[in-house]
């Protein structure tokens, strides 16, 4: 029997060394084991107690002295079976924990805020909408939005939206009234506001996120992931929807 074999069974270096020493010496007090292994007395006591806990070494008291000896050989198999049972139990506990964690994760959405610059940030909003097939709401879009991103992008987006049956409600400034003829009416409801003031900021509400796009030459996009913010902006959208014109 080699130390390496005992190590593979889960014994430490000192435990394996002492086990082989007891196998060689037979029932032994601590002093002969110190001489055999060269270990410190305190370390030997600790390792022997661990071997007793594992059930592969036993301890008796003779003349007020502790005597150690290895248990029957089958005790090693019993030790491994016990470890296996403990691992099986741990696996079942881990599976149950994973289920509970997944349940909590599904009901918890991490709150985040991200800022992007450029057209790529705008396109990221709609990429996620298409990928996750999310209905959405938009208000405040200015004419700059079709100048900075050309019509073909929006037309292609609406085709994908129609393919995935994604619904939308939009409130545009009157300067974009021509879109009334271009958008697919079966999936997009469109209204307009007539105020002379034309905001540069567009707000898009989708899933658990609200995105704000500042339509400057190099657009600035802020995306907030927060259900409370989403609910608040949906209420605002509904109010604006009621007073906007077809």
Structural account:
This protein folds into two domains: 3-76, Winged helix-like DNA-binding domain superfamily/Winged helix DNA-binding domain (Arc Repressor Mutant, subunit A, Orthogonal Bundle), CATH 1.10.10; 112-243, Endonuclease, Chain A (2-Layer Sandwich), CATH 3.30.870.10. It contains ten helices and nine strands. With 246 residues, it is α+β, with helices and mostly antiparallel strands. It has a seven-stranded mixed beta sheet with strand order 3-9-8-7-4-5-6, sandwiched between helices. It has a two-stranded antiparallel sheet with strand order 1-2. It has helices at residues 3-8, 13-25, 30-37, 41-54, 74-106, 119-132, 144-148, 151-163, 179-182, 227-243, and strands spanning 57-62, 65-70, 112-117, 136-141, 168-173, 188-193, 201-206, 209-214, 220-225.
Would you spell out the secondary-structure blueprint of this structure?
Blueprint: H1 3-8, H2 13-25, H3 30-37, H4 41-54, E1 57-62, E2 65-70, H5 74-106, E3 112-117, H6 119-132, E4 136-141, H7 144-148, H8 151-163, E5 168-173, H9 179-182, E6 188-193, E7 201-206, E8 209-214, E9 220-225, H10 227-243
Parallel strand pairs: 4-5, 5-6
Antiparallel strand pairs: 1-2, 3-9, 4-7, 7-8, 8-9
């Amino acid at each position: 029997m080699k130390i390496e074999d005992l190590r593979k069974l889960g014994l430490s270096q000192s435990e394996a060394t002492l086990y082989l020493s007891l196998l060689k010496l037979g029932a032994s007090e601590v002093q002969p084991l110190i001489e055999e292994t060269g270990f410190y007395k305190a370390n030997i006591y600790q390792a022997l107690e661990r071997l007793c806990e594992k059930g592969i070494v036993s301890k008796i008291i003779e003349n007020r002295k502790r005597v150690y000896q290895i248990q029957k050989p089958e005790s090693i198999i019993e030790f491994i079976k016990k470890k296996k049972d403990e691992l099986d139990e741990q696996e079942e506990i881990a599976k149950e924990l994973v289920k509970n964690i997944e349940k909590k994760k599904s009901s918890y959405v991490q709150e985040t805020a991200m800022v992007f610059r450029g057209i790529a940030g705008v396109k990221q909003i709609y990429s996620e909408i298409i990928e996750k097939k999310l209905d959405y709401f938009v208000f405040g879009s200015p004419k700059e939005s079709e100048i900075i991103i050309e019509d073909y992008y929006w037309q292609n987006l609406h085709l994908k939206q129609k393919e995935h049956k994604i619904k939308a409600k939009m409130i545009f400034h009157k300067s974009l009234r021509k879109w009334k003829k271009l958008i697919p009416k079966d999936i997009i409801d469109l209204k307009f506001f007539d105020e002379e003031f034309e905001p540069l900021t567009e707000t898009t509400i989708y899933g658990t996120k609200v995105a704000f796009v500042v339509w400057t030459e190099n657009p600035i996009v802020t995306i907030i992931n927060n259900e409370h913010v989403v609910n608040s902006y949906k209420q605002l959208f509904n109010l604006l929807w009621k007073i906007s014109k077809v």
